[in-house]
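Following the same procedure, sequence and fold were stored together, as reproduced here:

>
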Amino acid sequence: MNPIVLWFHQLGSPPTFDRFARRWAPWAYGLALLTMAVGLYGALFQVPADYQQGDSFRILYIHVPSAWMSLAVFALMALYGAIALIWRIKLCEILAMACAPIGAAFTVVTLATGSIWGKPMWGTWWDWDPRLTTQLILLFLYLGVIGLYQSIEDRRTAARAASLLAIVGVALLPIIRYSVVWWDSLHQGQTIRVFGESSMDASMVGPLLWMIVATKFWFVGSLLARARADNLRREAGKDWVRRMAGAPGERA
């Protein structure tokens, strides 16, 4: 068997995943805090004020990475959910459901920072703009996945039902992404492009990239920590959990 395939196969074992998550979650959190500190320092002290928006534009260094993560996490949740439904892999059920509260948190940050940014720019905290409205619907979808998962007693049945909702909800992602193109919108268009030239001044891009990396590391740490907790709850009573809980210096 291919070594990479074998590693992923072994990672699906609950005890192996527990060891993996326990080891790497703190590293992910640490790297997130480090890269976030670098990004925030650059955003607050090195980047000049915008010629139109002044210092209020600096909130984009939180708003934009959070917005990108709100979409990316939902897509990943749906992917894990699809794998869980097709191949009945329990770890993917756990990972899919662990994504939901993290993605919901990123969406709340996106909406909150967008409102704070919109007040001086648009003169209002909220407008039923296509981008804002679809982002709010995304939050409701996240909450729907969480609520459905919690409402069914059997964890595996609950995860599969919630995963199906996540898969259906993926249809919203391209609508959010292209809403500023398809409809008249107060929300500004895309300023950062992975491929091609960005409209943002080059001096402002560096701290944003640091913040984007920081949110990725934070997500990985949160995902591993939440998935590990759910994994331990599901495996409670198993010999390996009892041994770990009773071993000197170990904590479940």
Observations:
- The longest helix spans residues 14-46.
- Residues 248-252 have pLDDT under 50 and may be disordered.
